[in-house]
Amino acid sequence: MKKHIFYFILTFVTVQMSFAGSISEYAVIKGTISIPDFQTKEVTLYNVEDGKPAVAATAKVNPLGEFGFMTPVSAAGFYYIDYGQFKNRTQLIRLYLEPKLDINLVINKEHYVLSGKNVGQNVLVQKANEIYNEFAPFARLGGNVTYVDFYPWLDKGVAKANEFSKTINTKDTNFNKLLKLAVATDVEESTYTFFRMPRTAFPDKDDRPAVIKTWQTDKKFTDPDLLKLHNGVALMSNYFFYVSVSGAAVPQRLDIVETLNHITDPALKDVYLRDVVANSRMKIEEYEKIAPSIKPYMISATSKSFLLEYEKVLHKNVGQKGLDFTYNDINNKPVSFSDFKGKYVYIDLWATWCGPCKAEIPHMKKIEEDYHGKNIVFVSLSLDKPKDAQKWKDFVTKEQLKGIQLMADKDFGSDVAKNYDVNAIPRFLLFDTKGNIINSDALRPSNPELRVQLDKLLKS
Q: Whole-angstrom Cα distance, residue 51 to residue 31?
């Protein structure tokens, strides 16, 4: 027994010794994971930064399944325990930590038992977590739950959440407000996530649960406390995705500024835009077009630092000399990149097995036709496997592909693929008349903005 106690204290000291001695108020969490065949040796404690989970501390799990945290709490708020289940939405262990709390957790596979000398508001928080867990299967990747199950259940789930929110009436008004916001966010974020998950059955586009319409307002995001929740940014992202795909118009990813009309709080705008830019995979041309509209809202030090690094990465290859490759055409004649010096060069990296690549072919044909005779060369460079060379030649002939048709020598192991970090296709490259890179991840032929860019280059 003494050895057991010593191991637990040692875990506390090891994990927390970096804390400054002047910090006097802590929350203590002691836990035991009671799950058969449990293998994870480390538990993570998350807090929240700008509406997303952020690692606050980690702790080792001893052979008895025990772990512990003694963490300083400068301001009361939500923390999250992750033993490997957090991102998979298999069980939410959310705690509202305040100074001087002393919490014990016994974690089972689908629930946890809460006890301790001072658990604060966490009996109520546990009930909120249970509601989250009821919604979670519908928003879980790989869950494969379809609308056939979700739609009939949703009204009951929302009603239960609303009834619970009415019971949140402690003496701590700040806690009450935050937990009510957390419950509403859990319900909506999970519901919107459902519509982003791959399914085996889909409803008609206009077939949507009626309750969702009650969540849509002109000024949707007004409360900066949303950034105190681990799924605050996810709610904004999933909400706008849902609205875009549910509308009559074809969604346009550059309609970012339009979303800002539904966000009134400056901090929410700042954080939302940072997330959008980080995850949008915009091309240089797309970013430069939209940057003047979004930068005035990205005013925090974090966003300014993010944009500085983002722009560095976005432009890191611009102006560098293009790789001087040599590959064979369908007649086995070698063609080199240097052969095109003096002309703009647009290269399509594709393969005969790639559906999205073949979807671009009609657009590629049309753009080649419209720019024929101008100072630009269109090159289609296949990354098919060498053994499929004849298949590639037959495809080029059958489809009457125009421009310059080449095939790389080692598919994704070829120099051109490795030089430009190509791990997915279609991929497009654009070079100036000196053979220098304009964009190593250029606009697709199907994007109307490509013609705008080419027209501008050819006039210069």
A: 26
Point out which residues pair with 407 in neighbouring strands.
Answer: 328, 382
* Tokens, residue 394: 């037959």
Cβ neighbours for 299, distance < 8 A, ≥ 6 positions apart: 266, 270
- In this structure, the number of other CB atoms found within 10 A of the CB of residue 407 comes to 24
Q: Output the CA torsion sign for 358, 363, 369, 375.
A: negative
pLDDT tens digit sequence for 51-110: 999 999 999 999 999 999 999 998 999 999 999 999 889 999 999 999 999 999 999 999
Nearest 10 degrees: CA dihedral of 129, 131, 133, 135? -140
Burial zone of 354 (CB within 10 Å; 0-12 exposed, 13-18 middle, 19+ buried):
middle
Max CA-CA distance within the chain?
86
Block residue for tokens 């939302």: 272
Q: Is the dihedral of CA 92, 96, 97, 100 positive or negative?
A: negative
pLDDT reported for residue 24: 54
Number of C-beta neighbours around residue 380 at 10 A? 22
Note if the pTM is more than 0.85.
no
Task: Please state, in angstroms and rounded to a whole number, the distance separating the CA atoms of residues 262 and 219.
Answer: 4
Bridge partner list, 113:
106
DSSP string, 231-294: THHHHHHHHHHHHHHHSSSPP-TTTHHHHGGGB--HHHHHHHHHHHHHHS---HHHHHHHHHHH
Q: Which residues, 6 or more positions from 206, have their beta carbon under 8 angstroms from its beta carbon?
A: none
Cα dihedral sign, 64-70-76-77: negative
More confident residue, 384 or 13: 384
As a whole number of angstroms, the distance between CA 326 and CA 329 comes to 10
Contacts of 249 (CB under 8 A, 6+ apart): none
Show Cβ contacts of residue 434 under 8 Å, excluding neighbours closer than 6 positions: 341
How far is the C-alpha of 258 from the C-alpha of 255, rounded, in Å? 5
Give the span between the Cα atoms of 366 and 380, in whole angstroms.
14
CA distances from 93 to 75, 199, 254 (A): 19, 27, 37
Q: Which two tokens stand for residue 363?
A: 């657009």
